[in-house]
């Protein structure tokens, strides 16, 4: 049985950011399937050359991993695969929450919910036997005689060390040297799954679970050595939802990187309060090569933060940013505009607050109700009835009827936020220019950004 796993190309405004990382999700699935003895090929369509000569006829099963923005492209790929006689399986952080709508198109045979490694392997094994019984596979949905069938959820994988490393050998890692941290090529890895926080705009705790499952420090160091010595990447991005959740573990990992003489620069996703309370951990992070920290600030308004279930104190954020600057770390702060109870005054205050924090990067986004989030359940009946609504779920567009903002007004506020922030000082202009150079964003990328932004 020959299997193809596909990562659709990025689309919309987010395609203009210039970030290109290997698709870790399907590479984990591919590695697990190889261990089970299957022949696997991976096609990452985010790499332009991989979009040429894509044929489905040689394959028995085609697996497609997609998020919300790429939903339309994923369905197009599924349609092509079905026409060529393939069994089509879809997974990722979107399909499981809209499985009935996807399956009703008859372009997809099965949808995998949540973690895909074990579920996909059991599904393929069952299909290979050819005796039915797919309803015994946990964590999938499909149609039977036109009726939706959802099997019981599959328990989360508890021992992540039992999973093989992502099958990076199935792709060309040199295709992913466009994205930089400073002057160094950067590539991602994940050291844990799960998030104990339940932010209403994020589906991570729903998808991965609220219990955080950690890989051992030794296993993470082994992967870091592979990236450093085999693939020659000298910068990494830790993509855990909250990398600094367990300070003692972070310190142990940092000391291990130093002991093994891994000359790595890196960035991670963090919470301000955890950094502020653990300055020793931050010092070890800097010693081990940390260069940049991503902070989910979201808003300076306690009412908005409470509605988002952030569990954050604004003063903690202010003090954390001050501390990180003193230690020489770059800071990437994110903000959400258009909370359900917000009005124009709150948005202007958010912009002023971002300027006062004066971080290296400020990422402004419009509140987007992704399927699987609490916000989605609140506003799903108000989502605009566009021909392809999921294509606009890129955090740059208002996609539902807001009580206080029109589509165009919130678009203007988003543009205004970026203009005011990145013209606040000469240093700010240098920061955005360095960002453009770092990601090699040229005039074509700028024109594509403007086209997507203003043309939808």
What can be said about this structure in brief?
This protein has helices at 24-35, 71-83, 99-103, 117-129, 204-208, 217-230, 247-259, 272-276, 279-287, 302-308, 314-326, 344-357, 374-379, 407-421, 426-438, 443-455, and strands at 2-7, 39-44, 61-65, 87-91, 110-112, 140-144, 147-150, 180-181, 184-189, 192-193, 213-214, 235-238, 265-270, 290-298, 330-337, 361-366. By secondary structure, it is of the alpha/beta class. The protein has 2 domains: 2-150, Rossmann fold (3-Layer(aba) Sandwich), CATH 3.40.50; 179-421, TIM Barrel.
Lay out the secondary structure:
Elements: E1 2-7, H1 24-35, E2 39-44, E3 61-65, H2 71-83, E4 87-91, H3 99-103, E5 110-112, H4 117-129, E6 140-144, E7 147-150, E8 180-181, E9 184-189, E10 192-193, H5 204-208, E11 213-214, H6 217-230, E12 235-238, H7 247-259, E13 265-270, H8 272-276, H9 279-287, E14 290-298, H10 302-308, H11 314-326, E15 330-337, H12 344-357, E16 361-366, H13 374-379, H14 407-421, H15 426-438, H16 443-455
Parallel strand pairs: 1-2, 1-3, 3-4, 4-5, 9-12, 12-13, 13-14, 14-15, 15-16
Antiparallel strand pairs: 5-6, 6-7, 8-9, 10-11
* Biggest sheet architecture: 7 strands, mixed
Shape: globular
Number of helices: 16
Name of the CATH class of the largest domain: Alpha Beta
Secondary structure tally: strands: 16
| Average pLDDT score | 91
CATH topology of the largest domain: TIM Barrel
Strand order of the largest sheet: 2-1-3-4-5-6-7
Name given to the CATH architecture of the largest domain: Alpha-Beta Barrel
Fraction in helix: 25-40%
CATH homologous superfamily designation of the largest domain: Aldolase class I
* Tally of domains: 2
- Termini, distance in Å? 41 Å
How much of the sequence lies in strands comes to 15-25%
Please tell me how large the radius of gyration is.
22 Å
């Amino acid at each position: 049985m020959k299997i193809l796993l596909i990562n659709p190309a990025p689309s919309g405004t987010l395609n203009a950011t210039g970030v290109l990382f290997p698709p870790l999700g399907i590479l984990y699935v591919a590695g697990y399937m190889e261990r089970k003895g299957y022949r696997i090929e991976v096609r990452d369509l985010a790499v332009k050359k991989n979009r040429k000569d894509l044929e489905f006829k040689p394959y028995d099963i085609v697996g497609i991993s997609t998020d919300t923005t790429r939903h339309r492209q994923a369905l197009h790929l599924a349609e092509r695969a079905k026409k060529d006689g393939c069994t089509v399986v879809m997974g990722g952080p979107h399909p499981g929450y809209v499985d009935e709508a996807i399956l009703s198109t008859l372009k997809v045979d099965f949808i995998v919910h949540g973690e895909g490694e074990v579920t996909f392997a059991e599904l393929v094994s069952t299909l290979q036997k050819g005796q039915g019984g797919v309803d015994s596979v946990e964590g999938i949905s499909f149609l039977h005689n036109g009726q939706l069938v959802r099997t019981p959820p599959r328990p989360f994988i508890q021992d992540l060390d039992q999973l093989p490393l992502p099958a990076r050998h199935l792709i060309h890692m040199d295709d992913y040297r466009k994205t930089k941290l400073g002057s160094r090529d950067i590539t991602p890895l994940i050291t844990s799954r799960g998030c104990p926080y339940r932010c209403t705009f994020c589906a991570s705790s729903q998808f991965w679970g609220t219990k955080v499952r950690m890989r051992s420090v030794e296993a993470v160091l082994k992967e870091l050595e592979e990236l450093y010595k085999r693939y020659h990447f000298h910068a990494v991005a830790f993509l855990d939802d909250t990398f600094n959740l367990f300070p003692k573990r972070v310190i142990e990992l940092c000391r291990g990187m130093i002991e093994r003489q891994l000359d790595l620069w890196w960035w991670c996703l963090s919470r301000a309060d955890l950094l502020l309370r653990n300055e020793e951990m931050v010092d070890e992070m800097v010693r081990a090569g940390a260069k940049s920290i991503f902070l989910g600030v979201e808003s300076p308004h306690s009412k908005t933060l409470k509605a988002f279930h952030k569990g954050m104190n604004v003063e903690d954020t202010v003090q954390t940013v001050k501390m990180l600057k003193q230690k020489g770390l770059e800071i990437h702060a994110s903000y959400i505009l258009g909370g359900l109870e917000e009005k124009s005054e709150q948005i202007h205050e958010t912009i002023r607050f971002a300027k006062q924090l004066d971080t290296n990067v400020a990422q402004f986004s419009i509140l987007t109700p992704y399927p699987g989030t609490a916000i989605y359940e609140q506003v799903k009946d108000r989502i605009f009835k566009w021909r392809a609504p999921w294509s606009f779920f890129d955090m740059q567009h208002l996609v539902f009827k807001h009580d206080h903002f029109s589509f165009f007004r919130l678009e203007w506020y988003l543009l205004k936020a970026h203009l005011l922030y990145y013209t606040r000082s000469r240093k700010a202009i240098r920061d955005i220019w360095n960002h453009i150079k770092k990601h090699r964003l040229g005039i074509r990328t700028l024109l594509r950004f403007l086209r997507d932004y203003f043309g939808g």
